[in-house]
Amino acid sequence: MTDDLLRSTFHGFEQLPLSEFAERAYLDYSMYVVLDRALPFIGDGLKPVQRRIIYAMSELGLAAGAKPKKSARTVGDVIGKFHPHGDSACYEAMVLMAQPFSYRYPLIEGQGNFGSSDDPKSFAAMRYTESKLSPIAEVLLGELGQGTVDWTPNFDGTLEEPTWMPARLPHLLLNGTTGIAVGMATDVPPHNVGEIVSACVRLLDDPDASVRDLCEHVRGPDYPTAAEIITPTTDLVAMYETGSGSVRARGVFVKEHANIVITELPYQVSPSKIIEQIASQMRAKKLPWLEDIRDESDHANPTRIVLVPRSNRVDAEQLMGHLFATTDLEKSFRVNMNVIGLDGRPQVKNLKMLLSEWLSFRQTTVTRRLKHRLDKVDRRLHLLDGLLVAFLNLDEVIHIIRTEDEPKAVLMPRFKLSEEQADYILDTRLKQLGRLEEMKIRGEQDALASERDQLIATLESKAKLKKLVKDELLADARKFGDARRSPLVARQAAQALAETELVASEPMTVVLSEKGWVRAAKGHDIDATSLSYRDGDSLLVAVRTRSTQQVAFLDSAGRSYSVAVHTLPSARGNGEPLTGRFAPVPGASFQAMTSADNDAKLVIASSHGYGFVTRFENLTSRQKAGKALLSLSEGGRVLQPAAIASVEHDRIVAVTSAGHVLAFPLAELPELDKGKGNKLIDIPKAKRGTEHVVAVAVVPSNGKLLVQSGARTMTLSFKELEPYLGARGSRGGLLPRGWQKVDALLVE
């Protein structure tokens, strides 16, 4: 392509395909987020915004011993000089470093409202609060001006800022960090300074130490709260070996008389959230053991949640175990130690990699500090050598200065001085020269020469350098170290109690109306016929049960549905329609109801005279659409299930609408999970359209059968049923005249 053609097609901007431009822009943004926003640097453990806040505060003179200044002043300097982003985000990062419940070792000391553990973001505006650096911030800033870091221009090139902080302690592991970048995230938990320093010393003494060896010193994370860490030791070691895993923390409670008092919560869990979670369970009647919950937290007791049990018989351990499993009283924290290493690349590192790289960073920092100090000592010795010459030849030096137009050019060859020495002599005041004493100069020279020898010896010996690093680590650990806050306790993860275990076992009567409305009344002495019903509705069946059991409903399609008794509405009203809880097939109506323990056995039968034995568990279903149970032929109806006491000794009794009764041993009826069943009593073909089975009952050997016909009841003992005994599927005997229209069968 010719130059003329190039000039004709170039319009002053670069032309790129949209796909290439979008890909390049997204990758640039991704790398910016990873390296300059979300992930910390392993050396100082800080993100750029945190580093700039700390540096800006040091430049403002806000050291630990200084008087605090308005936070707005600090934020203004940060965003105006180093971090051209939003002031609210910058202030929020600053507040986080001042919250003792967020940072294990806060870097900023705040005055005013800096939020609370109940609501960390309830801090006051930056124009109201004041702040300064905390004492431990010295660990990050103490060596800043000693040639230990690289400096880079700020965003507009008018100032310089440190590329990293010369941290004397592995701050990354002390306070931890969280961050979300593009395609990666980081979650480093906080640790105890004493344990981390102990592991660093072990690694300095034994570079071949394994992660398992280091875990003898670093026993686990140490959060700002005193909640228990219940993660097994083996899991913690595996987490440190891989650099990822999870840590489970559990709140702490004590018994105070009859009450249970929660005194500690897991990291970043607010008391108000816990109270809301527990209160919602109480409102849903899922915590019948609790009578009340109170929040008594104050400045003296930041966490004090009082639970009031209903009685002294409530097992506190069992109740709290359930709450641990169903609320944030027990919480799992993700660990993903993904950080930017010394090579400038993000990587998930295990504990040894983190400590080894940081120790390498620290030794490099100390080497730079020592070299910087050595250069200053050499320069000072050089100047003192020139100053001593001037002192020993003071009269001649003064004469040269007074008489010569260019004294510097004369002094340098006369006394063999360097240009720097000559400038230093000329810049020294005359009266200061007069006060100088040879012994003072030589004393300073001796002290500096001794320091110079020590510096050179340390720089030339790896062993001495390691010892210096170790001594400084131990000194900082003694100065800033404290006891572990998060105790390590071996406990199993909490398990929620079954819903029935949470409910007090009380006698209940469940009432089902003809139109499918259900309700539950306390007690077994309920007269269901005397209850009020909606217009056009009436009693279908009432069943005695207990609040800890389930109740099953059978519809005209032969499907079964179930629900926990304690969740049913009170009998004080009309109840609620079952169609609101279940989804039966269109046109189906509810025809029967029963309740029992899961292992209890029942007889399920249809009006066409077929049935089978089954366990109550086969009637239960978690699906709104229920489950198929009884196969019905056209025109068939589900009969009320009959409870069984003993399959071997009980007799089953079936009665038809024509008054025919058949009794036979229950053992002759098969046990099925579902289906049509076997024939119970014979109904001739000619009468199948007009005659049907009215009811079935199971009579134990010590029981009695009550035959209801209108307002009259006939009682038949187990022995008195013998005239009606026959083979299963036979016609049976006919009831006496006047009793052949049977309404129901009951068993006493």
Can you offer a commentary on this structure?
- With 748 residues, the chain is of the alpha+beta class.
- It has 4 domains: 24-188, Topoisomerase II, domain 5, CATH 3.90.199.10; 252-328, Gyrase A, domain 2 (2-Layer Sandwich), CATH 3.30.1360.40; 368-462, Topoisomerase, domain 3, CATH 1.10.268.10; 500-747, Neuraminidase (6 Propeller), CATH 2.120.10.90.
- The chain is built from 19 helices and 35 strands.
- The strands form 11 sheets. It has a 4-stranded antiparallel sheet with strand order 10-11-13-12, with helices on one face.
- A hairpin with a 6-residue loop joins strand 4 and strand 5 (160-162).
- Helix 8 crosses helix 13 (351-392) and helix 13 (351-392) runs antiparallel to helix 18.
- It is rod-shaped and about 155 Å long.
- The N and C termini lie far apart (109 Å).
CATH superfamily of the largest domain: DNA gyrase/topoisomerase IV, subunit A, C-terminal
Which structural class should the secondary elements be placed in?
alpha+beta
Helix content: 25-40%
Radius of gyration using CA atoms only: 43 Å
Kindly identify the CATH topology of the largest domain.
Answer: Neuraminidase
Between the first and last Cα atoms, what is the distance in angstroms?
109 Å
Which strand-content bin applies to the residues?
Answer: 15-25%
Tally the beta strands: 35
- CATH A-level architecture of the largest domain: 6 Propeller
